[in-house]
Write a structure and sequence with these properties.
Elements: E1 29-34, H1 40-58, E2 61-66, H2 72-81, E3 86-90, H3 104-116, H4 125-136, E4 149-152, E5 158-159, H5 167-173, E6 178-180, E7 183-185, H6 194-204, H7 215-218, E8 229-231, E9 236-239, H8 240-244, H9 246-258, H10 260-263, H11 268-279, E10 285-287, E11 293-295, E12 298-300, H12 305-310, H13 329-336
Parallel strand pairs: 1-2, 1-4, 2-3, 6-10
Antiparallel strand pairs: 4-9, 5-11, 6-9, 7-8, 11-12
The structure holds guanosine-5'-diphosphate and manganese (II) ion (MN).
């Protein structure tokens, strides 16, 4: 392939409205948080920041999901913080347990082995149910059925900048289905057979591949191996209809049958990301460079001073992950032929 052949003036990232649009009708969108009762006070920090930076202007709903009953304390405190309507869903047992084809003894032995090898969360059973749930079931909850867009929020995150425009409306108007802030490679030890399993699926079902997909972002060798790049799913703004699609449902079913959520430690981030990169055309995937975001240990902070000042961002641009060596967002710019952000070289070290 000759990269010079189709070199055109690279399009810049689509512009985002700086000023709030006139108060218009809300669209069908909600925040979604999976949490335990014990997450209440770290989650309160996240909610407070999202409210102050965004939702106090828009009053979107907030759906909380749990594999256990939420306590009164949890419901009362979160309802007091959220400016939209809060809803609480109990996850059905079938969405948070072992499918019948899983050999639970084998799964337990894997956890012990991963504990010894010190693989992050490798020893944890609940973490696996969480990853499987976020991959295959969050979007199937009854409580989400009337919504079109969602924004996933976790405990202990930070939002660094004011968001004066309605991001959900922006997604809809610009025909975006998946939005991210940080991307990076997955730990290979957690996903030894994931890519092989994905390939089995796409070889049998080539009809699901988007014509203008982003395979090149996932693989450095034309699809033979996975480079591990994934959108960090603790932040996601997306279209639920993407997960509800036949392509995604069949894909999840195939992965679930293969057992890697339990026999390895497949994360929902690579599972979502591979699907988005293969089943969506590139232009439906959006990098939110302007929100300013933190989840331990990485930051997203607009490196452009004008943006930071205009939006009252309180982050250190030197910590921005976008252009660092380990970031996959650099490659995202490359495969999309986007013009890099002004001054990026100063923030790559
Ligand atoms: P990390 O970001 O990968 O370190 O994982 P977290 O501990 O933040 O978990 C990811 C999300 O799932 C967070 O929103 C947690 O609150 C939630 N979560 C993790 N484990 C459980 C669990 O066992 N039950 C419930 N209800 N939520 C969980
Ligand atoms: Mn987290």
């Amino acid at each position: 392939r000759n990269p010079a052949a189709n070199q055109q003036a690279p399009p810049a990232q689509p512009a985002q409205p700086a000023a709030p649009p006139a108060q218009q009708q809300k669209i069908k969108a909600t925040f979604v948080t999976l949490a335990r009762n014990s997450d209440l006070y770290t989650l309160s920090d996240s909610i407070r920041m999202i409210e102050d930076r965004f939702n106090k202007k828009f009053h979107y709903d907030w759906v909380f999901l749990n594999d256990d009953e939420f306590s009164e304390e949890f419901k009362e405190a979160t309802t007091a913080l959220v400016s939209g309507t809060t809803k609480y869903g109990l996850i059905p047992k079938e969405h948070w347990s072992y499918p019948e084809w899983i050999d639970q003894e084998k799964a337990a032995l894997v956890r012990e082995d991963m504990r010894e090898r010190k693989i992050i969360y490798g020893h944890s059973e609940s973490y696996r149910h969480m990853c499987r749930f976020e991959s295959g079931f969050f979007w199937r909850q009854d409580i989400l059925k009337d919504y079109e867009y969602y924004w996933r929020v976790e405990p202990d995150i930070k939002l660094y900048c004011d968001i004066d425009y309605d991001v959900f409306k922006w997604m809809k108007q610009n025909n975006k289905d998946y939005g991210f802030t940080i991307s990076l490679p997955e730990y290979k030890e957690t996903i030894p057979t994931l890519w092989q399993t994905v390939k089995e699926f796409t070889e049998k079902n080539p009809q699901y591949l988007a014509k203008n997909n982003m395979l090149e972002w996932l693989s450095n060798d034309g699809g033979n191996t996975y480079n591990g790049c994934h959108f960090w799913s603790n932040f996601e703004i997306g279209n639920l209809n993407f997960f509800r699609s036949e392509a995604y449902q069949k894909y999840f079913e195939h992965l679930d049958k293969a057992g890697g959520f339990f026999y390895e430690r497949w994360g929902d981030a690579p599972v979502h990301s591979i699907a988005a990169a293969l089943f969506l055309p590139k232009e439906k995937i959006h990098f939110f460079e302007d929100v300013g975001y933190y989840h331990v240990p990485f930051h997203n902070c607009p490196i452009d001073k004008d943006i930071r000042f205009e939006r009252n961002c309180n982050c250190n641009p030197k910590e921005d992950f976008t252009w660092k060596a380990y970031s996959c967002t650099t490659k995202y710019y490359k495969v999309n032929q986007f013009k890099r952000q002004k001054g990026w070289e100063k923030f790559s070290g």
